[in-house]
């Protein structure tokens, strides 16, 4: 046992930035359906937040009892596993306080705090799991029917009594929890899982509790000026694994601590595939910054920062998280939150709707756009609702093809004036050269990126399954010219040189120069972006704001 604990300590410490954790100032709140969802689908992000010294709270909407009997005993076992795993991630003894957290309407949730680090907290609402035969589909029914009401299931040994919830009380409880813990950053699950995957779950295409949890969280945060990150769940297994071996080993070690208390799980299939990946549902891409300005979506607003001054941009639609792409310093495209429709802002002109490309499939989302200026035209590329790639030039939308493209695509203007579009798919890289007709022809590739492909003048870069970086060069016919050992946990950003920026396995923004030298600039919370001249990099940081770093 001592050997196992020592190994776990080594693995977790390997994810720790070099300096001792500073006094907590950031506050991260995760809202998930079940005990284990955050360790499976939101790590290493949660583990890195804990190791940084941030205030970290996970809210579990359901008891996670499934159809195991007696339900209160199994719920208690899952809570024990969660406590053990969080204590391990925090580097503290598995010793917790338990109290009642007051919620609106006289209701209560159970609040558990890590005794050595009371800023680490777990909140259990205890709503029934979707698979509980006494309350089938409880969370989904609460979401669909405002009049529906269900009782909670306090775990054995709980300090709170059973109560009842309806749709309004769940939303009100989440708002009360947000007030209590004052997050700077909120994470939740996938509100609209990709219908290409996980068909065994029917119309939800994922565990229904995951989907309902994400929708409750979105609703509770409407109007809040907070970044909300959505994470993919079961369907990360339908995309290539994307975490370095060292990070996967640390995730497995933590999950093993949880699994000691939960006989229904294992470290084998399907859990091994979930442990090997982490993916945002709506990735931010690498085009949301340009010379001296960047833009992103926060709290249903499009926020533009110019020369360090932040302002809200008026738009005739509610923008979607992760959907901003600058075509050039004066032109940007953004998606509408619900439909995914693309809009263009060209300087001071009114917003221009660009619509959505065919095919149109209800329930399917468009991927985030990538835009590039070609003279007075703006070319936009997206992953369409059919799972392929479509582009829009001055002549309207044209479908390039594909069915298994991942979320992101990237458009780049080559030196000869042609536009190239690149995307990762489950079977390898897809690459097209646009033709004068406004559509395109395939370009052969043998590469296998695991996520977004960053592009700049003359170069493209992506992450492979080991977390290493691969660089393609236009002068080599868009073939591989470099492979860089990186242990990246984000897809890269790129600037001419090429200079690359990644989030590394320690959660730090790292710059990789053409000569191979590297500089770590500070902790970040997601994929970085670089300005077109490579002088600056920017990323979401733990205070919930965008931080700009000068690139030395």
TrEMBL record:
* Keywords from the named record: Signal, Zinc
Q: What is the lineage of its organism?
A: Bacteria, Bacillati, Actinomycetota, Actinomycetes, Pseudonocardiales
Does the keyword field hold Signal? yes
- Highest taxon above the source species: Bacteria
Q: Name the Pfam families on file.
A: PIG-L
**Does the keyword ATP-binding belong to this entry?**
no
Q: What is this protein called?
A: PIG-L family deacetylase
Q: Where is the signal peptide?
A: 1-22
The record lists the organism as Saccharopolyspora ipomoeae
């Amino acid at each position: 046992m001592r050997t196992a604990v020592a190994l776990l300590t080594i693995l977790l410490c390997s994810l720790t930035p070099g300096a001792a954790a500073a006094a907590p100032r950031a506050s991260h709140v995760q809202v998930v359906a079940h005990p284990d969802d955050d360790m499976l689908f939101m790590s290493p992000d949660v583990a890195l937040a804990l190791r940084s010294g941030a205030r970290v709270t996970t809210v579990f909407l359901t008891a996670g009892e499934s159809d195991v009997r007696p339900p209160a005993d199994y719920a208690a076992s899952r809570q024990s596993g969660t406590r053990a795993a969080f204590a391990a991630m925090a580097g503290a003894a598995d010793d917790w306080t338990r109290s009642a957290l007051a919620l609106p309407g006289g209701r209560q949730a159970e609040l558990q705090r890590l005794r050595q680090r009371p800023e680490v907290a777990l909140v259990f609402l205890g709503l029934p799991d979707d698979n509980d035969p006494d309350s089938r589909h409880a969370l989904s029914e609460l979401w669909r029917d405002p009049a529906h009401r269900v009782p909670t299931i306090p775990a054995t040994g709980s300090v709170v009594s059973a109560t009842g919830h309806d749709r309004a009380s769940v939303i009100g409880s989440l708002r009360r929890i947000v007030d209590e813990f004052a997050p700077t950053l909120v994470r939740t699950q996938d509100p609209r899982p990709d219908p290409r995957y996980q068909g065994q779950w029917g119309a939800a295409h994922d565990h229904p509790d995951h989907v309902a949890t994400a929708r409750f969280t979105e609703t509770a945060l409407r109007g809040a000026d907070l970044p909300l990150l959505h994470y993919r769940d079961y369907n990360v297994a339908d995309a290539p694994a994307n975490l370095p071996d060292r990070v996967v080993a640390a995730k497995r070690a933590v999950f093993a601590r949880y699994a000691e208390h939960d006989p229904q799980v294992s470290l084998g299939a399907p859990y091994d595939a979930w442990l090997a990946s982490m993916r945002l549902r709506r990735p931010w891409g690498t085009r949301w910054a340009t010379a001296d300005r960047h833009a992103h979506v926060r709290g249903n607003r499009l926020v533009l920062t110019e020369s360090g001054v932040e302002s809200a941009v008026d738009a005739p639609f509610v923008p979607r998280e992760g959907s901003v792409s600058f075509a050039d310093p004066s032109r940007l495209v953004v998606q509408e939150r619900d439909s995914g429709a693309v809009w263009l802002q060209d300087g001071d002109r009114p917003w221009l709707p660009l619509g959505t490309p065919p095919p149109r499939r209800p329930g399917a989302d468009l991927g985030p756009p990538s835009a590039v200026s070609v003279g007075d035209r703006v070319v936009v590329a997206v992953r369409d609702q059919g799972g392929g790639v479509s582009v829009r030039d001055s002549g309207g939308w044209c479908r390039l093809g594909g069915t298994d493209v991942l979320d992101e695509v990237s458009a780049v203007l080559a030196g000869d004036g042609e536009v190239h579009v690149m995307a990762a798919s489950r079977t390898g890289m897809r690459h097209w050269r646009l033709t004068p007709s406004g559509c395109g022809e395939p370009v052969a590739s043998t590469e296998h990126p695991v996520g977004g492909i960053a592009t700049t003048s003359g170069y493209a870069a992506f992450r492979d399954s080991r977390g290493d970086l691969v660089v393609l060069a236009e002068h080599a016919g868009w073939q591989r010219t470099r492979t860089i050992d990186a242990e990246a946990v984000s897809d890269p950003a790129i600037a001419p040189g090429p200079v690359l920026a990644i989030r590394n396995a320690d959660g730090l923004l790292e710059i990789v120069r053409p000569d191979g030298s590297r500089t770590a600039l500070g902790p970040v919370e997601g994929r970085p972006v670089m300005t077109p001249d490579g002088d600056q990099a920017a990323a979401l940081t733990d205070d919930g704001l965008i931080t700009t770093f000068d690139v030395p």
